[in-house]
Amino acid sequence: MAATLHALRIAAHDPRALERFWTGLLGPAIEDTGFRLSFVRSDEPKTRQNQMHFDLTSESLEDQRRTVAKALELGGRHIDIGQLPEETHVVLADPEGNEFCVIEPGNDFLAECGFVGAIASDGSQEVGYFWSKALGWPLVWDQDQETAIRSPHGGPKITWGGPPFTPKTGPNRLRFVLTGPLSEVERLVSLGAARLGAGDDGQVEMADPDGNEFSFLIRETAA
């Protein structure tokens, strides 16, 4: 049995404030993702572009403008990460500097994925293969070292952009939380994950083949 994606955990200086931002921006759309958002306290400063970010979709240019305006009203801001003037997606950051994009209408790649279109990740082709096997989600894109997977039940895609990679300096601020029986830990190791040690509440801290941290919450099976 494959592990289940339980949550996307976001480290924050003010978890409650950041939760208010994302709850206000995403609203009920988060329920369509199949996982939850969790926010944990961290005093670590943000020193680099995140390894993962949300791509939010738009039904029209006016819809895109509304999403941007709502994000700014909630405390977000425009940022420059090197996007070109002709690019039509809008790059923003939440109140703690976590990047996300509001994608222009008519994006075929994210069609039918819902408002939360993708969790776009910096990562290798190999790590895309790992997560496909880890979660039991099929590959829906595998071309030019770029990969994407999506739950058979729908929801957003998880994508990996291939090289070049942003150098990893310290723990990622965003990480996946998986859940499943204890036997899954060994299966994940056999797929290329590494154990990092024990975490809070009996969780096993792990890293994927690219070195990105994730947590595994052991779920006891019925006797």
Automatic annotation (TrEMBL):
Q: Which domain of life is it from?
A: Bacteria
Name the Pfam families on file: Glyoxalase_6
Where's the Glyoxalase-like domain? 10-103, 122-216
Q: What is this protein called?
A: Glyoxalase-like domain-containing protein
Q: To which species is this protein native?
A: Amycolatopsis japonica
Q: What is the lineage of its organism?
A: Bacteria, Bacillati, Actinomycetota, Actinomycetes, Pseudonocardiales
